[in-house]
Amino acid sequence: MRHYAPFIGLRYSFSRKRNRFTSVIAMVSMLGMVIGVASLITVLSVMNGFGEELRGRILSLVPHGFVESGAGEIRDWQALAGQLEQAADVVAVSPFISDKVIFTSGRTIRGGVLTAIDPQREGRVSRIPQTITSGSLESLSQPGFKLVLGASLARILGVAVGDRVEVTVPRLTVTPLGIFPRSKQLEVGGIFEVGAQPDTFQAYIGLDDGQRLLGPRSGVQGLQVRTRDLYSAPRVMQALAGALPPGLTVKDWSQTQGSLFQAVKMEKLMVSLLLLSVVAVAAFNIVSTLVMSVAEKRRDIAVLRTMGARASGVMAIFVAHGLGLAAVGISFGVLLGVLIASNVSSLTRFVEDLFGVKLFDPAVYFISELPSTLEWSDVIAVVLASLFLSLLATLYPAWRAAHVAPAEVLRYE
Question: MacB-like periplasmic core domain: which residues (predicted)?
Fold first, then answer.
């Protein structure tokens, strides 16, 4: 038999005639591998789900790119917008003016960001119109100073559509009585909700009103750009930078929001490394199984060596023995992990119904259920990492088996 090593190694792994204690240790090792692999796949899927939720919610309000004036304002923004819309991969362009302000309602004071937009153009560069829960975005085009608030910000201020909010901007008004901060009473014309952090600080006002309140100015601070593909936005905006007039700067969503998504990636990496340690512990439990198996099979090893088996062949037998045990644990772990990751939401609802609790209260969290996105690339990475750790765990016991002296074992046989 030219390929006797895998045959004998797998037979050792699944033989029913093994020592009972060795069998128990082997089962514990495989169970640890199952739990470790399943946990790693499940947690990676949940992290992917959180990343997708974060990306979908936050980037629903954030345009793919920005063109801003380095100093001053863009006066002839209509001509520049027309030029940008003629570029390849650019879908729409919308003007904006943005500044930090203070919102006051009664005794409640809250800092936030006020952005002046064109309601007719804004719907083409972001999903703000789809996130309106009460009122309408078109109210910003109506006469009178009106604004649209994030849902959490409206709850904090205790206002609803039709109520008034005082907005203080970082500008000074000079009067005969002295210098005072500029403030204005604005009527709430709508409330939006994306289920993410912008709900707590973001507000919108019509472009004309914003030019008077945040100015005075006749132009705009910059232009928001939507590209055909979110992930190609950095390349498209970089290509646009070379064709723009001097004094204009270009940014994309990866620069304005990139640190947040990098933090999510880093968190996913750290969690993966921590859970991989569970797999490593399970893999190195195989060491004790193989050490006991080597002690149990010393006579078999000696007989094989006297029949002409090389040391490398004996070593291959016990590597196959250990990998056989690991492969079973990894296979069941992958199956269990994929099943859990694919049904996390259902399992969450089952636990909530069973114990009568709400794990993710929408009043506290931005999500109402645990998101999960299974990526097969993560499953493959987990399988390969587990097999690699298992291979490392088999090397020392296999090396010990290869150095068993046949003469010493068979001396008294």
Answer: 27-241
